[in-house]
Amino acid sequence: MKKSRPKYGQIIEAALQVIAENGYHASQVSKIAKQADVADGTIYLYFKNKEDILISVFKERMGSFIKQIEQKIKKETTADKQLLALIESHFTQLSENKYLAIVTQLELRQSKPKLREEINNVLKAYLDIIDLVIQKGIDEKFFREDVDIRLMRQMIFGTMDETVTSWVMKTHRYNLVAQAPIVHDLITKGFLLQK
Amino acid sequence: MKKSRPKYGQIIEAALQVIAENGYHASQVSKIAKQADVADGTIYLYFKNKEDILISVFKERMGSFIKQIEQKIKKETTADKQLLALIESHFTQLSENKYLAIVTQLELRQSKPKLREEINNVLKAYLDIIDLVIQKGIDEKFFREDVDIRLMRQMIFGTMDETVTSWVMKTHRYNLVAQAPIVHDLITKGFLLQK
Amino acid sequence: MKKSRPKYGQIIEAALQVIAENGYHASQVSKIAKQADVADGTIYLYFKNKEDILISVFKERMGSFIKQIEQKIKKETTADKQLLALIESHFTQLSENKYLAIVTQLELRQSKPKLREEINNVLKAYLDIIDLVIQKGIDEKFFREDVDIRLMRQMIFGTMDETVTSWVMKTHRYNLVAQAPIVHDLITKGFLLQK
Amino acid sequence: MKKSRPKYGQIIEAALQVIAENGYHASQVSKIAKQADVADGTIYLYFKNKEDILISVFKERMGSFIKQIEQKIKKETTADKQLLALIESHFTQLSENKYLAIVTQLELRQSKPKLREEINNVLKAYLDIIDLVIQKGIDEKFFREDVDIRLMRQMIFGTMDETVTSWVMKTHRYNLVAQAPIVHDLITKGFLLQK
DNA sequence: GATGAATGAGAATTCATTCAT
DNA sequence: TATGAATGAATTCTCATTCAT
């Protein structure tokens, strides 16, 4: 497998950092190569092209990102607790890796259609997990069933995403993970004052 | 003023369309010039550089976008109705102008720091409006007051944003505006099944 | 005649200053127009193209430059005194007009063949005057006649030219005119110590 | 070092020729690349920008130019003979390399301040050598000491420079080297007829 | 596998010049 | 005459990618 080759990981790691620090377009292949301590040409032994680096970074990192969330969820029995676990894990992981956070929230919003598509494929796996949690909540007669799951998922993902982006832009001046229970509370109970 | 000069508007319009269709990076200045039916050099009589075109497109369009939402809100008396009006107007406007929707949801997520900053300045005005609605809801004892307004705003904006992006990516196969009342309902009442 | 039209003189004057301050290549026609307080297009009513401006500046200014030297020379009876007068007038005039000095010593050394040729045509008139002085000196049995006049003229002109250039580059920190008698002395008597 | 890389020399050589033939401003980088038989981009592996090419050509060539003059001078014992050797070497070298002569006398008289400065730095080394010869002549009680060395140097350099320029402009129709002893004679003895 | 020198396509921008008013 | 908005040709430089070693 690719992943066993040491230079592959080196390059992924270097790319993540360089892109986070400079932005995708200002991250020349040669800069990534230098940071990874390999020759420019070596990059092309492991990646088809520059875009492939970005996609690979995302796939690799998103893969473990999702895996960890799955594990956290598995430990919870109710949809409610799973939702909280999901939000917590989402925030925690991005909190703990600022490069990943920047690349995820800012750099990946690139526009090349092909790139977008690939990213969405990876993201799809994550969205599916969210959908499962929601469905479980509905089955448990805990979440309402009169609303399209897609819309509920958009609310969950959209809120988390906006929260993280906002946090990244403010350059991490407050504790992101602490927001998790509040976000969970807001999403489940809504804005209305319970009388 | 700039805006009175006819070629300025021509170029803005052309840029919006070309960028929506090709993506910012694939939108050569010469392509925009051709679409606007002016010479390449003419672009530089009205814009400092290529980036300035994108920023100007955004400012011009976002300006009226926000203005329209403000007017819709003004007509409503309660925060609840205002929130619905806001979501409806947001969805309606982006529904009606597919170029604007694409540019807003995809192209503007560019990463050049300077560009981001300019965009955020304009966006700030919009976020402030959302904040006002939330505050009004709290004052009316309609929205809960135990949660940071920023977080509530992130939920509103994040949900709308994700919904529109998702809709843009699915290339408009369903009615976005029809989602507005449901989104509003979800945000206010939350996920929980009311027993 | 061209010269009677007021804008013509305005443009010549503006061009001299702008070129002296920015260099020929950084002196956009629009910059000259602005300095002359005329519209860009107006320039082209008086000059064929940008190069023509430079040539015209040179011709106009060199014309009076040479005329003044001729007058000074006319007042002297011997070649020796005429040579001194020539050097003095050369230094004096360039001393008194720093813009002219800069343009003459630095900007005119441009390379476009056509430009060079035109400049040389004007310069030719000056060199001819120098030749006349030398010839007179020879006729007076005052200057040696065993050396090609061209070479003697090159020594006179080359020395003056290098002296002025050097002075311009040092940004006028010493009195150029005061050098005139010494230069004259050097040229006539040479380097050798008279024993 | 740069100089050991073959393409570096190729480009320098090509640039010298192309610039001599077309003038600096008409020498597109692509033209130089073609003449050097390298790709356009290769130029930028060895030179920062187009200006850097010109400066490098000058430095490389002027370096050996000066070195050769120094060696010639070293062989002479008296200042008088050294001065002759200097003039001879100056004329000989430029005679033998018409491209270098053209670039030196015409193209380098460009005006961009930064460029000028760099050129003057290199030239300074040459002027220093001239000064040394003059000083030696004074010490030998052979040259007069009542005149500023700077002025004497300006006479030597100015005369040589004007002589070469004149020769270059006349497109080499006469023997430049043959002028050396006459120039030397003129400089040392002056114009005056010895009675 | 690894290297890094070389490639060359590609694009933004400038500015002398024109011409309708 | 005078204007100045519009033109578009022209050119430098970047950087992803290749390939001989």
CATH topology of the largest domain in chain A: Tetracycline Repressor, domain 2
Oligomer: homotetramer
Number of strands of chain A: 0
Under the CATH scheme, the architecture of the largest domain in chain A is: Orthogonal Bundle
Q: Could you say which structural class the secondary elements and strand pairing of chain A correspond to?
A: mainly alpha
Concise description?
With 195 residues, chain A is mainly α.
Model description:
By secondary structure, chain A is an all-alpha fold. In chain A, 73% of the residues lie in helices and 0% in strands. Chain A folds into two domains: 1-47, Homeodomain-like (Arc Repressor Mutant, subunit A, Orthogonal Bundle); 54-189, Tetracycline Repressor, domain 2. In chain A, helix 1 crosses helix 6 (98-107), helix 4 crosses helix 5 (79-96) and helix 5 (79-96) packs antiparallel against helix 7 (113-139). At the A-B interface, helix 7, helix 8 and helix 9 of A face helix 7, helix 8 and helix 9 of B. The structure holds a DNA duplex (21 and 21 nucleotides).
